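pinning this so it doesn't scroll away 📌
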Amino acid sequence: MSNSNGNSNHDQQFETVAVFDRILGGLDGVPGVDKTPASTLIALVDVVGKASTFIVQTYRRRDEGDVQLAPGQIDRPMDRAGDTIFVQHIDANGSYRFVLPPIVADTIARQRDLLTAKGRRRGARAAAETRKARGVVAGFAALSPAQLARARRLAQATRQKKAAARAARKAAKAAKA
């Protein structure tokens, strides 16, 4: 029996191992590597409502410190510490498997954090404008000079009390030794 390439099924069993499988096998069960359970997601991707299935799993290789490369060994992104993400995508057109190396996973995380910070900043500005429109005075600006001086004296007294307690604990510890 032949496949579309004209090769027999017998020849197919000797195919080389795919990069996805090789990298996954190189991380699974290795000391210093943690993994998440695989998550399966079904997403509707177009107006017609055709579904795509994604299977996502992350492996984290802990940093082993400064690892020296052996002579002739190549520094590969997949061998570095960090998160390696395995994605399998299945839709009506077929299935696709790919690996996101730690440098790509770090970039995605960094970009997500930047977008989160932008959203929070935008929300904080809108909240400040709303408070300003209602006439709410921000922070210590709402305190009179007398109230502000009292708050500062109270804070100073609290700091002095805590410093005295730390000194007493330190002296008691030194007396025991």
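📌 and the second one:
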Amino acid sequence: MDEPFVTTRQMGEQVDTIYALAVKFSKNYWNILKGHLDDSHADTNTNSTNIRKTCEDFKLYMPQFRDRLNDEKLQDPNAAAYKSAAQMYISNLEAIANNMLLYLDNPTDTKASASYQQGINLIPDYEASITTERTQYLKLAGFTDEEIKTLFATTGYSDTEAPSSNETASQPSETSDSEAEPSDIAEESAPETSPAETTPEEETPTVDPAPESTVSTPSEQSVSTSPMVYRTKSGSKYHDNPHCNGGTYFECTLDEALSRGSQPCKKCVR
């Protein structure tokens, strides 16, 4: 009989860092999209163009964030439920964007409209599931309640608090039509995105704003659309894994790393 896998604090921290940042980056994109959906004062054509551009960014970056969860060096069987919750959250956001694009292309597509709205309504349930599974995993790795709260605070969960040991959160009760199985999109073949073109003769469809019951968006939040990576202050390489080679790294955008002449690490950047 095989011995059960033991999750060390070091492994737990490494896995949590990768998983939590993938969720954080995905949530940042959702906050950008929600801001456009809530912007009732914007010009209709301009706002629809912004929504379309952000949805195209979802299609480009969500698969990359999901791929971060599959780092072969950080496969912990005890993190399976945490990983699954994060994957479903990211896939749901990607499906929302896909259905929103279908609706923008065809405003009579009531199925696409209903699907993206249902996906938006499910976001709080998915976030609650991540909170629960993340907390349970960190406890298994030996972290205390106070340490877990600190980890939540340092990874961008500004509107989600770590539950106490006697709190639980339920998994989403239904599967949305928008919750399509994610397809593997190679980073090299990711399409170039550009704002949708409109002419004065065309009437650009508007997308219904996100329901008030969904996740709140900070009033002042500016998020770069460039993926986040890690680099040393003087290093020539940038990394996807903040623990690569045991160095001390600082988070920055991919654009910033490239502008400083940094090259991708051959070990952790796919």
